[in-house]
């Protein structure tokens, strides 16, 4: 266990940040899975805009790497474009 007051506070704040980051990342993954299960283009396009926004926020906050965000968005765009 940490001895310094600042180290104790840092431990608390790191735990809070980790929990927030994990929640945001998991929520985004859930929305990606929902988008991938869409069968019609008309229902997928509004979801796609929402998911792209979420992925961009993860990349902006350094929860995921910007290249990973780009790969995710590209794959999802290709998926949505291929729907009927």
What fraction of residues sit in β-strands? Answer: under 5%
Structural class: mainly alpha
N- to C-terminal distance:
57 Å
Query: Mean pLDDT, nearest integer?
Result: 96
Characterize the overall form. elongated
- Biggest sheet features: none
Tally of separate helices: 3
Helix content: over 70%
| Radius of gyration, whole Å | 17 Å
N-to-C series of helices and strands:
HHH
Strand tally is 0
Regions with pLDDT < 50 over 5+ consecutive residues? none
Relevant terms:
84 residues, single chain, 3 helices, mainly alpha
Task: Describe what you observe in this structure.
- With 84 residues, the protein is an all-alpha fold.
- The protein has a domain of 56 residues.
- The protein is 81% helix and 0% strand.
- The protein has three helices and no strands.
- Helix 1 runs antiparallel to helix 2.
- The longest helix is centred in the first third of the chain and has 32 residues.
- The model has no long low-confidence stretch (mean pLDDT 96).
Short description:
This protein has 84 residues and is mainly α.
Annotate the secondary structure layout.
Blueprint (H helix, E strand, L loop, with lengths): L4 H32 L4 H20 L5 H16 L3
